[in-house]
Amino acid sequence: TVGNNDTVNRDGASSPYVAWCWKAGSAFSNDASATSVGSIDSDGSINTTSGFAIIRWSGTAANATIAHGIAAPKMMIIKRISGGTESWVVYHQAISPAKHLFLNGTDAENADANNFQDTATTSSVFSVGTYNQMNASGTDNMIAYCFAEKQGFSKFGSFTGNGDTDGTFVFLGFRPAWIMIKRTDGANSWVIYDNKREGYNVDNDPLQANGGNAEGTSDDIDFLSNGFKMRTSGAGENGSGSSYIYAAFAHSPFVNSNGVPCNAR
What we know:
Number of helices: 4
Radius of gyration: 19 Å
Mean pLDDT: 92
Order of helices and strands: HEHEEEEEEEEHEEEEEEEEHE
Strand order of the largest sheet: 1-2-3-10-5-6-7-8
Distance between the termini: 31 Å
Shape: globular
Helix content: under 10%
Low-confidence stretches: none
Number of strands: 18
Structural class: mainly beta
């Protein structure tokens, strides 16, 4: 359901919109003192099948561990939602847990062991430090969007650019529907591609997660049956020798009895 604000529902056929939605659905609650899982209480909504969780907690300004209810998250997006204004902090398995990225910015990876206590996620908890953007004290609430990796449905990894329009190929094991890419060693935007706008090669237009710009018109990427291939030499997506992380989700998230994705149309 949308209202009449231009950001979601401007009048006119020339005003298209796109939405990307992840469903959790099952209520989650963890009393840390009762379960001995995590050091502070958490609650939210989880989906163990798709490996997605929305987790909320109240900050303590002390190092803590928080139960998440799914397999070990490979990517997390964390935001302070009350008591102050902070950036969106991103954890990704392909970079050190002593580092982080900001979803609302273009910064290269930031080295700071405090955010995640330089500790990778586990099958039961993730770690937070003392910073306000992760764990402000008092009644301030935090929220985390947690993504585990599921064969045939989601993948979170990295690649090195080659600076060529015959670009790097990244194997996913499925045909993607949605991809987000961020250069980690340079100040470049988060770029998003999906199959609901043009949706055909090579016309897969980029949008920026960290900006309010309209979609671009550059031909950056091919969506393939088993992964994606870069078609740009741009520094933000495929610079020679540059490092990138990605998050990708499948067009048809189905696997056969052997766990092999079914990619045929």
